[in-house]
């Protein structure tokens, strides 16, 4: 009897795991089936993410704004805390936050060098300083040829 595979996950009833003749063979069969299920789950997560990105793009109230206007808004967000009277966090990643909103915002933010021309870092120790290197590299890459204002504040106990 030839049964049709599930249209959603592709599982074919005729290909159900066979009975194992030994524990070792059973472990192998279960491991293979687990990997197959993991691959299906991964594929479903990717499909879900594609649908959510598309849904965000359709629903976005800012989708009609040209990139130049978004860039101007982003610049104001990134520079607004300069007037905060020193209450600004010591590690500034506003451009990252803006880029996390949607694919479109990320594209606009990552292609706006003026958002990446100022960064303040206050590493507490060498491990944290090492962890900040990729962030600093992204700032330098995205700033392109724009001059970068970099401020490093090391605490007195830095090791």
From TrEMBL:
Domain F-box span(s) in chain numbering: 64-121
Annotated segments matching region Disordered: 1-26
UniProt superkingdom: Eukaryota
InterPro entries: F-box_dom
Biased composition (Basic and acidic residues): 11-22
Matching Pfam families: F-box-like (PF12937)
Protein name per the record: F-box domain-containing protein
Protein's organism: Macrolepiota fuliginosa MF-IS2
Organismal lineage: Eukaryota, Fungi, Dikarya, Basidiomycota, Agaricomycotina
